[in-house]
Amino acid sequence: MATIELEDVSKTYDANKRDSGVEAVRNVSMHVGSGEFVSIVGPTGCGKSTLMEIVAGLTDPTAGEVTIAGEPVTGPRRDVGVVFQKDSTFPWRTVLENVEFGLQMHGVTFDERRERSRDVIELVGLSGFEDTYPNELSGGMRQRVAIARTLVMNPAVMLMDEPFGALDEQTRIMLGDELLSIAAKTEQTTLFITHSINEAIHLSDRVVVMSARPGQIKETVGVDIPRPRSTDVFGSERFNDLSERVWELLKPEAESGLQR
Ligand code: ADP
Ligand code: MG
What confidence score (pLDDT) does residue 259 get? Predict the structure, then answer.
């Protein structure tokens, strides 16, 4: 079980030939409890991906500190899985070979990695596609492979940066719903970035609303819709109230890139 703790995290990218230095994130503090699902929403360019990269240990904050499971983050770690918007499958490997890659790298025996990979492939709904290559799959299915590749490592923490951002609305809602049941089974701690307000409410215990750049936390909205949830939550009175609330917070921040 693992918590995520951000304390006064700020990030300014160094000046280069083009820019005079970009202040991306300012003084962000947040706590994600063990097993919690927290989403971050905010306008394009407000520093969401920057924040995620800092938590993932892929980039250093200019100031502040991140700890996971009580340990300061100093680089990528094995107990932290990351999924990005752009699917990161290897085109020359089959679905099964993609999913078992991480285990192979860690020296897990053939039999064990096959078994674990098959279990996770089933979990993400790709049974029957083990021997298929990514370019024969739809975008939604490729993203399932990317999620399976991360899940198979059994990370205590999942960081997801707009994982369904490139998918159509229907696929996205369906995958979100599956992610809910996976997260419930694995009891992972999840930090999820999205530009879809409805997706954030559907999935999360809390929705962190960020301001325009430099990204600061504007407000955190608790989602008190009981679990287990299904797609039935869409359109319920409570759902609409929460969606309206987040929308009102975001409207003054956003010029583009936001979606109910
Ligand atoms: P979001 O994910 O919310 O759209 P990002 O974190 O990608 O926002 O970007 C926040 C700001 O930081 C943007 O102005 C972006 O141009 C800038 N930025 C992101 N990455 C870099 C980088 N590696 N070097 C310089 N500026 C960057
Ligand atoms: Mg981003």
Answer: 66
